[in-house]
Amino acid sequence: LTAIAAAFLVLTITFTSLRFLVRGYMIRALGWDDWLILLALNSFICQAAFLVHIAWMEQNKDLSLEKPLSDALEYVVLEFAFYIFTTFALKLSLAVFFLRIVLEKWQRQVIIISTVVFSLYTFSFFLVAVFQCGSPAQYLLHKVQGKCVSWSVLGPMNYTHGVLNALTDWIFVSFPILVVRRANMSSRDKWSVVFVLVIGVLGSVASVVRLFYINDLNSGDKNAIAFFAQAPSIAILSTIEPGMGITAACMATLKPLFKAVLDHTRFHVPSSSDKNKLSSAERGIHTPSGVM
User: Which parts of the chain register pLDDT below 50?
Assistant: First the structure.
């Protein structure tokens, strides 16, 4: 868990920094989507920090004792809350990004409506997840007393959030692809644009995979300690999904940087014809005087 969290922290911070280099310095066109992706990054950093701390507690604390177990469960609730908020901020950033590309009114309306639906549902899901047992600090006590929201409610809400998360991404990317398909562009340029758009929603792949592991969260209803033995898979996917999403969303904005690097490389690396000319010139320089 720690290694995966660290890897995606490095990836997300690096590519978000490159995004701000491109949008803020190279083309000077920072927008709301950039600030929202920064918000998503900060939330993801908090999520990863809680995940690492939970993993440390599993290794160094006796979770059979009440206080360590209560603290660990509180951190689980907070980690999950930051996961939900990260998906929310990331989705808003993607929505703003794709609204810049889509021009037809009805397509823009579909993107806006899907974003509003996802946002409202995510906000409700966030409140239920955080306060499912009242105060997160009293999670263990209320769990034992049976005062928490049951899995019959939490389970469907988890699955619905996962489906909406992936479905909204696919809606976002489908309309720009239709626009590119009809555009008067070369096939090479079309595939280049489609590739950039698809990169922006790669996180939805992890969202779909995560759906198959959501039921692992159900073990908390049976045994609080057993939850930690069963939860690593869903914890890993809950880290990969937003981490991949943030990284991919930032990669989709880096075309000016890639172009600048390629232009710089072409300028400084001589072509084969240039090398031949250079070799001929050198032979001419070293030709003995009087020999023509």
Answer: 278, 281-283, 285-292
- State pLDDT tens for residues 145-187: 778 888 889 999 999 999 999 999 889 888 877 777 776 667 7
Total domain count for the chain? 1
**Are 245 and 91 within 8 A, CB to CB?**
no
The verdict on residue 215 lying in a domain is yes
pLDDT of residue 198: 72
Whichever domain contains 118, its CATH number is 1.20.1070
Q: Which domain holds residue 42?
A: 2-254
